[in-house]
Amino acid sequence: MTQMAQSSARIHTPAKTGGIAAERLEHFVAQIERLEEERAELGQDVRDLYLEAENQGFDPKIIRQIVKLRGMDPCEVEAHEALLHLTMQALGGCGNRVQ
Amino acid sequence: MTQMAQSSARIHTPAKTGGIAAERLEHFVAQIERLEEERAELGQDVRDLYLEAENQGFDPKIIRQIVKLRGMDPCEVEAHEALLHLTMQALGGCGNRVQ
Amino acid sequence: MTQMAQSSARIHTPAKTGGIAAERLEHFVAQIERLEEERAELGQDVRDLYLEAENQGFDPKIIRQIVKLRGMDPCEVEAHEALLHLTMQALGGCGNRVQ
Amino acid sequence: MTQMAQSSARIHTPAKTGGIAAERLEHFVAQIERLEEERAELGQDVRDLYLEAENQGFDPKIIRQIVKLRGMDPCEVEAHEALLHLTMQALGGCGNRVQ
DNA sequence: CCGTAATTAACAAAAC
DNA sequence: GTTTTGTTAATTACGG
Description:
Chain A is mostly helical. Chain A contains 3 helices and no strands. Chain A binds a DNA duplex through loops.
């Protein structure tokens, strides 16, 4: 085939197109690495923020939950709530001991 | 209370400091949300890259593995490989198990 | 020292103890494989149950949730609820738009 | 309709069939719980094995990889390896990146 | 059949 | 040090 990293099959690797494929692959890999690096930095920043918040007396768990709740679209939240209530009813109105 | 989102406990809520704490909390939450958003975008970009690479005939799994390998200390990689092969040989080749 | 699959280091592999280590390693591997196999079978059984339940008109999502809730100790459930409520209050009594 | 935990809808639960559905639901839930419990125990056993292997000087990561490799079709493994090496060579060895 | 969504397992990190 | 927790990757199931 013409490309390394290709799942397909035949591997007789024509040098020319192989070289071109290698370039493209290198391109992809390099770009991915760069993006992942930025991503990791942001992750570190987030962690630092949680740390600082904690140092100021806030509970990181709760902040996390706030972020999560605000990040969910209202429909999801509603659906989740609905599921919970349905479940409760299915359990016989809380009867089987939940909560 | 003195701060919402605070694990401590006592919740008798002096309005003034509560207000200040609320502001700081809002600050943290907003900043975290912003960073997470950027992070998510980068994640999407990475996914897109894998997709495009796949469309060009590259195997995403292989690319993933290459990215990982390049991110590791070559010595570690080599050591790991060596140990793995040694171990498999000690077990009588990998073919100790059917299928 | 003398064992393959050992992270430690020095690999001069005296045949004898190496052989013994190989046996022990083989033992571990075989046992793990056996347990994992049983485990996979059970997983399949569970999946089948969900399927059959679904065929009888029950919603697998809800069954999952029931199983999850019953599997949590009541304290956890309570703690979770409390966290949720605290979070709501921290958001200003649901004010920031949640739910 | 007649079944709780049913995705459909109307839940006015005629006592008789509702009771029957409840029984069946209970049956499913109980059975699932039992299977999951066994499954969890096996999982614990596996973890213990890894622990004991580690205590005897084996690297759990290596063992894990061996177990995985032995569980795969040898042809697939070989093909994957070959493709990976080919690709890395095309990228000019793995050493294209520092650190 | 492909793309997506959800569940599960592995890994890494952090708290106690 | 260990034990949990959070994150990430991979497998699996489902709908178009």
